[in-house]
Write a structure and sequence with these properties.
The complex is a heterodimer of chains A (178) and B (200). With 178 residues, chain A is mainly α. Chain A contains six helices and no strands. The relative contact order of chain A is 0.13. The chains are: A mainly alpha (178), B alpha+beta (200).
């Protein structure tokens, strides 16, 4: 029987910081934004395409839930890719911030280099996490809305009888593969 | 003497023939006073798009191409039933006492379709007296055929400008687009400034 490989605490911390997993806060932010961006186009469908919400409630409900799932999946992928790039770019700025913060601290308390490096790493991860979440949300939302509007109101404008699910599925597939 | 008689009789014949010709000419002139009217009725829809709940304008034009006036002119169109159309202005039965020769009249009826469906438009009928003492003459307009009346929903979908809807949509997109970008931009600017300061 092969021995189980247990990760050390440090390794688990590294996995948490640099892996694809999301914290509860990040997941909540992603689902909130996915819900908003999935429901906003319903206003256009009801007022421009005259697909009234009462008449198409089930279709819109299913479409919104499916859309939320795929968009949050796209957020997660996009955020993972952006985080590493942003972390590299913010290195100098974060270290400057930490050095300034340490210098402002009480002069008697000396901070070791190791502790400074750990603080810089932690802060860099924190800043990269926050910025990558915001940028992933913006990029994914902009792509989703642009493709949805282009397909729904230009290409498939007169598609009958129910253009909504076809367009949404197409957009989601495009975002997922991007 | 015989020759003289011949000449006399031939000149008399010529006079008689001239008189006969003149009589025929003026008799034709007398017959020309007994003229008849001939009316042409044209029915046309003035709208480009016919929509349920919106006004539909139909114009009837009567042209008298005959030599004489048309009297007791009556125009009737039974296309617009009360169950399917609401009369807004004009009348579907109109009378004119006289339409002179080489003149024309027109009449516009405005109705409002109450249902969105295909509508089969038939001819309007005109009845008139073509000449004095004659029996009434009937004429028919052109048939417009099948007209499509689209619903108000379909009209809004296809032809409304939707400027207000797009404006509101762009407002609704602010939390999804503008806010995340501003947060990212603020953080990016801050750390870029710190990085630039450190290098100097």
């Amino acid at each position: 029987m092969a021995p189980k490989s247990n990760f050390s605490k440090e390794e688990e911390l590294l996995l948490q910081d640099f892996g694809r997993g999301l914290s509860a806060k990040s997941s909540a932010i992603f689902y909130f934004h996915a819900f908003i961006v999935s429901t906003v186009p319903l206003y256009l469908f009801s007022n421009i395409q005259q697909m009234f919400i009462c008449e198409n409630a089930i279709l819109f409900g299913i479409g919104t839930i499916v859309s939320m799932y795929f968009i949050s999946f796209a957020y997660k992928n996009n955020k993972f890719e952006l985080k590493h790039k942003i972390a590299q770019k913010r290195g100098d700025g974060v270290s400057a911030e930490i050095h300034a913060a340490v210098a402002d601290m009480d002069g008697n308390k000396k901070v070791s280099k190791k502790e400074k490096d750990e603080r810089i790493l932690w802060r860099k991860n924190e800043v990269a996490e926050a910025e990558s979440i915001q940028l992933a949300v913006f990029n994914t939302n902009a792509t989703f809305l642009a493709i949805l509007i282009f397909l729904a109101f230009l290409i498939f404008k007169n598609y009958a009888p129910t253009p909504y699910p076809f367009r949404l599925q197409l957009v989601q597939n495009i975002i997922l593969t991007s | 003497m015989n020759l003289g008689c011949l000449i006399f009789y031939s000149s008399n014949m010529k006079c008689v023939l001239c008189l006969v010709a003149l009589f025929a000419f003026f008799s034709n002139a007398v017959i020309a006073d007994d003229t008849t009217a001939k009316l042409i009725l044209i029915k046309e829809v003035l709208n480009d798009i016919i929509t349920e709940g919106n006004d539909l304008s139909v114009q009837y034009s009567l042209f008298n191409i005959g030599d004489g006036p048309a009297t007791d002119v009556e125009l009737a169109d039974s296309d617009f039933h009360e169950s399917e159309f609401e009369l807004v202005s004009g009348m579907t039965s109109v009378k004119w006492e006289r339409i002179g020769a080489n003149s024309n009249v027109s009449h516009v009826v405005v109705v409002k379709p109450l249902k969105a469906s295909a509508f089969n438009s038939t001819s309007a009928v005109v009845q008139y007296v073509a000449s004095e003492g004659a029996e009434p003459t009937f004429g028919f307009s052109d048939e417009l055929g099948e007209l499509s009346i689209i619903s108000a929903t379909e009209y809004k979908r296809l032809h409304a400008s939707h400027v207000w809807e797009w404006f509101l949509f762009s407002v609704f997109c602010i939390p999804s687009l503008l806010l995340p970008y501003l947060l990212h931009f603020t953080s990016k600017s801050k750390y870029n400034a710190l990085s630039a300061k450190k290098k100097h």
